[in-house]
Write a structure and sequence with these properties.
Elements (H helix, E strand, L loop, with lengths): L3 E9 L5 H14 L6 E7 L12 E5 L4 E2 L4 H9 L7 E2 L3 H11 L2 E8 L2 E3 L3 H8 L5 E7 L10 E2 L15 E2 L9 E2 L4 E5 H5 L13 H9 L6 E10 L12 H14 L6
Parallel strand pairs: 1-2, 1-6, 2-3, 8-13
Antiparallel strand pairs: 4-5, 6-12, 7-13, 8-12, 9-10, 9-11
Length: 265
């Protein structure tokens, strides 16, 4: 199916997050005030009563309990003492994002969690950035305005010897390595590219679905960084967690030494 030119915002949410979700929707609508070529697709088990009158919003209720046969189910069963945990589990984040993408009618996707808020000028920033990209990142800020997980190196062989992120760090925005990682909390991607490279639905929340996707698709395209646009978390993420933990900071220093005067390594 050929998509129209515009933006489809794919927001994943869950019951209990209605207040922060409402803020996220309002920020998108402020950016697109008077403009029609956008839609907001909300996927999750949530109270739909507050959102059914929002403009350009499509509600996609989602059964959070997905049939799954995995070894980890036994551990959850023993912990929760609930029989259905042997066969069903929640946290189907890949299913949610894929469902939104398959429903989208526009050619650009902004895939995001419900605590992401577009900052003023986001839309204009992407207009300046242009259309020459398949996967794009922009500036991501924590609630305190500190930089968070946006432009990230993951597994450069000079820093680590595995693909599990032991070399993870923030990169300067003007640098690029083919050993990149795109955080699943927020990213932009062309609809056609994503539909041809869907998230792995065997991986649930906390199982690195965004890592697997990043390592797979970075072989097919070069990620692009848009410094003209910014998003900011609507809740505070721990200030001592990645990317501000000691390991990420040390890796960042090593990467700076590796780059030297180079833009790409």
């Amino acid at each position: 199916m050929r998509q129209s030119k515009g933006w489809s915002f794919c927001i994943v949410t869950a019951l209990g997050n209605e207040n922060i979700l409402k803020q996220s929707i309002e920020k998108i609508q402020n950016e697109f005030f008077g403009i029609e070529n956008y839609e907001i697709l909300i996927v999750g088990n949530f109270d739909v009563s507050e959102y059914k009158f929002f403009k350009n919003v499509v509600l996609l209720p989602f059964n959070e309990e997905i049939f799954s046969l995995k070894k980890g189910n036994l551990k959850r069963f023993l912990k929760e003492k609930t029989f259905k945990r042997l066969f069903f589990r929640s946290g189907a984040i890949s299913h949610k994002k894929n469902l939104a993408a398959k429903t989208a009618k526009f050619d650009k996707l902004c895939i995001m969690h419900d605590y992401i808020g577009l900052e003023s000028g986001w839309r204009e920033g992407y207009e300046v950035f242009g259309n020459d990209w398949n996967v794009a990142m922009n500036i991501v800020l924590n609630q305190d305005n500190s930089r968070h997980r946006d432009w990230i190196a993951w597994d450069h062989p000079a820093i680590c010897n595995d693909s599990k992120g032991s070399g993870a760090c923030l990169l300067p925005y003007d640098k690029y390595t083919k050993y990149m990682y795109i955080s699943g909390a927020y990213f932009c991607v062309k609809t056609e590219f994503f539909l041809n490279n869907l998230l792995n639905e065997k991986l649930f929340w906390g199982e690195g679905e965004d890592v697997e996707w990043s390592l797979r698709v970075r072989e097919k395209t070069q990620f692009k960084m848009n410094t003209n646009s910014t998003v900011k978390y609507l809740k505070m993420k721990p200030s001592n967690d990645a990317p501000n933990c000691d390991s990420w900071i040390k890796n960042g220093q090593k990467m700076k030494e590796l780059f030297g005067d180079n833009e790409i390594i």
